[in-house]
Amino acid sequence: MSDPTPTEATRPAAWITVVDEAAAQAREGVEYPGFEAWMVARLAAEPPPAFLPPEVTEGVDPRRIAIALARALWRVMPTEFNDYRGHSLPEPGRNEPCFCGSGNKYKHCCERLFQAAVSGVNPEYAWEAMLPTIPPDVVPRLVAQGRVPLWPLGEYAMDLAED
User: Fold this and answer.
1) What's the predicted TM-score (pTM) here?
2) What distance in Å separates the CA atoms of residue 46 and residue 20, rounded to the nearest whole number?
3) Which of 2, 15, 19, 38 has the fewest Cβ atoms surrounding its Cβ within 10 A?
4) Distance of CA 124 to the CA centre of its chain
5) Residues 6+ apart with CB under 8 A from 106
6) What local confidence, expressed as pLDDT, does residue 145 receive?
């Protein structure tokens, strides 16, 4: 489950670095296939993030883990080309072929891994990475619509006050 109010002590530094780099990819206008390819290349030699339970990741090809994390992060990454909303991706039915390309049924392949990634990827980290790059005249509209989580908004406001 996502940490409701991250603090420096609870923010997984290695994962935050990945989220910051992913936000840079998203800001450049990379569409999902390119984002997934970047994530697979980026995470190829990395151990799985600590928020993914070992029983879900043990013995799993790192490529599959990276794809599940890419899909989960893409769902919450607020980008300009999607009016600062996360993105929807089709999720295969349990008996359909898995999105990782293994040819196995989704329920026997990446379903548990993807669900663990979705529950572990904190959308506030994506907002923290993207908010400073959103034009200042757009931020009030997003706040009024209730789309900006409070914690990243507070961090953003503190950064503005310091500047």
Assistant:
1) 0.88
2) 16
3) 2
4) 9
5) 91, 92, 93, 94, 95, 96, 97, 98, 99
6) 94
